[in-house]
Amino acid sequence: MRAHDIAEALLKELKKKFDDAIVKVVSRDTTMLKIWNNQPGVLQMWKDINIQLLLGKQKRVAILEFRVESPEEVLSAVRRVEDYVTKVEESELYADLPEPKKPSPLEGGYDKRVVEHLANPKHLAEAMVTSALSSGAERTAGTLELEEVEVVVATSKGFQDSYRKTGIMAYLRSIRGDISGHWAWGSTHLNTNSLENVGSRSAEFLGLAKSKADFTPGRYDIVLSPLVVGNLINYVASMASGMAILMGMSFLAKKNVGEAIASEKFTLLDAPRDTTLPGLAPFDDEGVETYNKPIINRGVLSSILHNTATGKVFRTASTGNAGWVNPRPWNLVIEPGDSSLDSMISEVRKGYIILNNWYTRLQNYVEGQFSTVARDLVLEIRNGSIVGYVDRIRIADKFETLLKSIKLISRDTYDITWWEVRTPTRSPYILAENINLTKPVI
Predict the structure, then answer these.
(1) Positions of E strands within 314-356
(2) CATH number, domain containing residue 83
(3) Rounded-to-integer distance, Cα 356 and Cα 231, Å
(4) Do 316 and 297 fall within a single domain?
(5) What are phi and psi of 35, to 5 degrees?
(6) What is the tens place of the pLDDT at every residue in 139-151?
(7) What are 202-221's pLDDT values in tens digits?
């Protein structure tokens, strides 16, 4: 059955049994090609239909998720939970579903060339690898993923709409000797030049790592690559969720809209209507039209992200960011600055360039205390020049400290999507001053 037919069939039956119902059906056709030792290797292809239900009865709410294609199977499971819904406590965050309004459509988020390459993206992966090898890599490993997506949302209030989009996500690790570099890219559109740039950028710093130095923990100026910025800003944006704030899982719980939380050079947007980034959405999971909005504007907290329920608690409207439980950003865009990577390096007397990271963890959500471990190459800067490389570095500081310490932002930005940057992010290089660096325990 088509996604539309599944949604209509389910909603028709659910309206008979529940006061409120939302059906969300996501149909996804995906190809993943894995690259190992310079060769495109394992090719995986799958089609997936994900069905999500929000069911409300007597101010009690249940949320269910299924990976089946048959409405009959879903309804059979729903019958087994129907009696339990009225036995749970009333939801403190219950809110009536929004009245339906036709959202403005989004054009330009679907690229038929992505669909045409779903069956065989091998030559696209080869373009990445060739570019990396010509830029100094000896070996490469990575992943290329393409997908075609259809999203349907239907509510018992009378909303029903859908959209289609395509996506491409690529990342590559370039290795030379015992050092490695990394780059990633994500878009709704196929662009061969961008794929080649993934290869060249993953290898471009390898030639600068001529000698290894010891690292002493302390406070340093650091240049963060777009991959690292994207990862950390994903966490910051998630903490702008109304639910995160209500649960005390955000350093913004102690802040007010209009309060400075970052350098005035820094502006961060939630941009669901940017059709070049894979997180695009014309409407959210409640059928509310999305719109682009600043989360942080010139350093000032400007928006909290809401669904209908959290908006009710905060006495404001939904911002089109549902998530039935947790409001979320769709795409993130950091406004460019006026600097360059070379200018940033020249500004640093004693510090490091961190090109990639992983194991980002929150030690204290309310304080925004986090740590993240550098991965791949870390370049040492002394008196405005790269002098070598180190390994085993961890950033251990607070998000607000990091945001307020931003000194320079690059004019060039990069569209980053990969496993460590789940919310697609248009990200620059950033120079932050006096950040605490330690040695990781892993």
Answers:
(1) 332-334, 350-354
(2) 3.30.2290.10
(3) 9
(4) yes
(5) -110, 130
(6) 999 999 999 999 9
(7) 999 999 998 999 999 999 99
Angle, helices 192-203/122-134, rounded to nearest 10 degrees: 40
Q: How confident is the model at residue 442 (pLDDT cuts 50, 70, 90)?
A: low
Residue-level pLDDT at 337: 98
Pair (292, 174) in one structural domain: no
Q: Do 189 and 234 fall within a single domain?
A: no
Do 151 and 213 share a domain, yes or no? no
Contacts of 239 by beta carbon, 8 Å cutoff, 6+ apart = 245, 249, 250, 251, 252, 365, 368, 399
The answer to whether residues 26 and 151 touch, using CB atoms and an 8 Å cutoff, is yes
Phi–psi pair at 441, nearest 5 degrees: -95, -10
CA distances for 238 relative to 53, 304, 321, angstroms: 23, 10, 11
Asked whether residue 294 falls in the same domain as residue 410, the answer is yes
User: In this predicted model, what pLDDT tens digit does every residue of 244-271 receive, in sequence order?
Assistant: 999 999 999 999 999 999 999 999 999 9
263 and 117 belong to one structural domain: no
How many Å separate Cα 377 from the centre of its chain? Answer: 23
Q: 179, 203, 227 — which closes off a domain?
A: 203
pLDDT at 74: 82
Q: Which two tokens stand for residue 401?
A: 């400290």
CB atoms within 10 A of CB 302: 19
User: Which structural domain range is residue 324 located in?
Assistant: 209-438
Residue 148's SS3 state is strand
Angstrom CA distances, 152 to 3, 8, 106, 275, 417, stand at 7, 10, 14, 18, 23
Q: What is the pLDDT of residues 220-250, one digit of tens each?
A: 999 999 999 999 999 999 999 999 999 999 9
Among 165, 180, 203, the domain boundary falls at 203
pTM listed for this prediction = 0.96
The total domain count for the chain is: 2
What is 164-214 written as a DSSP string?
A: EEEEEEEEEEEEETTEEEEEEEEESS--HHHHHHHHHHHHTTGGG--SB--
- Secondary-structure breakdown of the chain: helix, strand, coil percentages, each rounded to the nearest 5: 25, 40, 35
Token pair listed for 81: 């939970």
User: How far is the C-alpha of 252 from the C-alpha of 259, rounded, in Å?
Assistant: 10
Clarify whether residues 189 and 222 are in a common domain. Answer: no
pLDDT in tens, 100-127: 999 999 999 999 999 999 999 999 999 9
Q: Tell me which H or E stretch contains 437.
A: strand 421-438
Look-up of token digits 């059979």: 76
Q: Same structural domain for residues 158 and 194?
A: yes
Helix and strand numbers (H, E) in the chain are 10, 19
* φ and ψ of 261, to 5 deg: -130, 0
